Amino acid sequence: MDRSQKADAVAQLNAVFNEVSVVVVTRNLGMTVAQSTALRLKMRDAGATYKVAKNRLANLALENTDYVGISDMLTGPVGLAWSTDPVAAAKAAVEFAKTNDKLEIVGGSMGSVVLDEAGIRALASMPSLDELRAKLIGLVNAPATKIAQVVTAPAAKVARVFAAYADKAA
């Protein structure tokens, strides 16, 4: 990797750090190519991205961002996962680490708040942004549905009474 490629990599990572909501730092303990590919696919399905970056370049990219606090975690063979959804990257990394002992969750950051491994696991247990939206819509729709049922119930009862009288008369 020559100097211009390194500068491009730092600029791309810096742009990522300025756009995302969460960054998760993982340690790769000898994953195979197939396992790395599976992790990347799982991340992509969750709406997150996983990348192995050189620690020195990642530290340069962290400068002047909210994520500068995670620079101490960048030692050894690390990978970075990030997403705009505050939960997606953490959830995908933790789920993959449960089934693969070669991926270790080191920590991460949510904006300027630095999280340790327990913090990332707690973040992963929270519902995602889409799940929260679905719950909110369900809560908003529930009263409207109940009102519609209450309003139509008397009319349905009257219709049943008339139907019963009609059956009785016939």
UniProtKB/TrEMBL annotation:
Stated name of the protein: Large ribosomal subunit protein uL10
Tell me which family the UniProt entry assigns to this protein. Answer: Belongs to the universal ribosomal protein uL10 family.
Q: Which gene encodes it?
A: rplJ
| Coiled-coil regions listed in the entry | none
Q: What are its GO cellular component terms? A: large ribosomal subunit
What this chain does, per the entry, is described as:
Forms part of the ribosomal stalk, playing a central role in the interaction of the ribosome with GTP-bound translation factors.
Name the Gene3D superfamilies on file. Answer: 3.30.70.1730, 6.10.250.290
BP GO terms, sorted: translation
Q: What is a GO molecular function of this protein? A: structural constituent of ribosome
Keyword annotations: Ribonucleoprotein, Ribosomal protein, RNA-binding, rRNA-binding
PANTHER family (alphabetical): 39S RIBOSOMAL PROTEIN L10, MITOCHONDRIAL
Which Pfam family, any one of them, does this sequence belong to? Ribosomal_L10
Ranges annotated as spanning the membrane: none
Q: Which InterPro entries match?
A: Ribosomal_uL10, Ribosomal_uL10-like_sf, Ribosomal_uL10_bac, Ribosomal_uL10_bac_type, Ribosomal_uL10_CS_bac
Entries under SUPFAM superfamilies matching the protein = Ribosomal protein L10-like (SSF160369)
Source organism's superkingdom?
Answer: Bacteria
Subunit structure, per the record? Part of the ribosomal stalk of the 50S ribosomal subunit. The N-terminus interacts with L11 and the large rRNA to form the base of the stalk. The C-terminus forms an elongated spine to which L12 dimers bind in a sequential fashion forming a multimeric L10(L12)X complex.
